[in-house]
Automatic annotation (TrEMBL):
Protein name (record): ABC transporter ATP-binding protein
Organism encoding this protein: Litorilinea aerophila
PANTHER family, sorted: ABC TRANSPORTER ABCH.1 (PTHR24220:SF86), IMPORT ATP-BINDING PROTEIN (PTHR24220)
InterPro entries: AAA+_ATPase, ABC_transporter-like_ATP-bd, ABC_transporter-like_CS, ABC_transpr_LolD-like, MacB-like_ATP-bd, P-loop_NTPase
All residue ranges annotated as the ABC transporter domain in the record: 29-268
Length: 271
């Protein structure tokens, strides 16, 4: 991989326990009894029914389940895009229930990189301008450093040669690579991706997956909703959601009753 642009010296902010008042030894993500109920014209609909979940730093987690099972609702709770009806959520030691709407947006921008199925790049900005946006929004890195950092990240995802094109001038897979660079802009420890390969052909999906694998090796934590069974088999842990509850977990990090790996849980091959 070319490295025409040097990695900027200054790292992004890291999530640390001092950001909030987490329980001792808290994992990166911790949910306790999270319930989400929506009010609908025909009454209350409970989309999440008391989720307990812990995800450690450096895990690569796939969230799977049938359409309507609650996958997006779950990750929207973790990113703070939506609020729980009850229950507690800590991310990196921050009890995010306590954040106001204004604080939530800035906190999210600094600590979580979000990747969407349809990329959601701003069409009137070039690829490099799209990658600079989160740094501008959160006032991260010195203004003079932001362009070089954006170019460095585009290089990491093999898109530096297209930096000055508009999103409409590159392919879907290339747009997703730019979106991944954008998600990395503020150097967040956590990446959350909702169907990141859902709009890509299988070869391009595989290259995006390989990029995620590399990021996990660099100690990023990735939480990914996917319908792609092949990809879900290649992560370190899968969480299956059904009717708003965790039906099943598989992988090396899956909890067991006695603290030892559960022999009944299949050990997935590492990514
Ligand atoms: N704003 C809302 N108001 C009412 N019901 C909602 C709302 N958002 C989601 N739901 C319902 O909550 C349930 C879970 O939705 P969610 O989007 O989390 O499912 P999902 O597993 O991500 O589905 P898919 O795989 O199709 O994206 C669904 O039955 C959905 O209709």
């Amino acid at each position: 991989m070319n490295n025409r642009f040097q990695k900027p010296e200054k790292p992004g902010t890291r999530l640390r326990p001092s950001d909030g008042q987490p329980p001792q030894g808290s994992p990166l993500i911790r949910l306790e009894q999270v319930v989400k109920a929506y009010q609908t014209p025909v009454g209350e609909f409970v989309a999440l029914r008391g989720i307990d979940l812990q995800i450690g730093e450096g895990e690569f987690v796939a969230v799977v389940g049938k359409s309507g099972s609650g996958k997006s609702t779950l990750i929207n709770m973790i990113t703070g895009i939506d609020r729980p009806t009850s229950g507690d959520i800590w991310v990196g030691g921050t009890h995010i229930n306590d954040l106001s709407e204004g604080k939530m947006a800035e906190w999210r921008g600094r600590h979580i990189g979000i990747i969407f199925q349809f990329f959601q790049l701003l069409p009137m900005l070039s690829c490099v301008e799209n990658v600079m946006l989160p740094m501008d929004f959160c006032n991260m890195f010195r203004p003079a450093e932001r362009y070089d950092r954006a170019m460095y990240l585009l290089e990491q995802v093999d898109m530096a040669d297209h930096a000055h094109k508009l999103p409409s001038e590159v392919s879907g897979g290339q747009q997703q690579r730019v979106a991944i660079a954008r998600a990395l802009a503020n150097d967040p420890p956590l990446l959350v991706a909702d169907e990141p390969t859902g709009n890509l052909d299988s070869k391009t999906a595989d290259s995006v997956f390989q990029l995620f694998t590399r990021l996990v090796a660099e100690r990023k934590t990735i939480l990914m909703v996917t319908h792609d069974e092949d990809l879900a088999r290649r992560v370190t842990r899968t969480i299956t959601i059904a009717d708003g509850a965790i039906l099943h977990e598989a992988g090396p990090q899956a909890p067991s009753t006695d603290g030892q790996p559960d022999p009944a849980i299949p050990q997935l091959r590492p990514a």
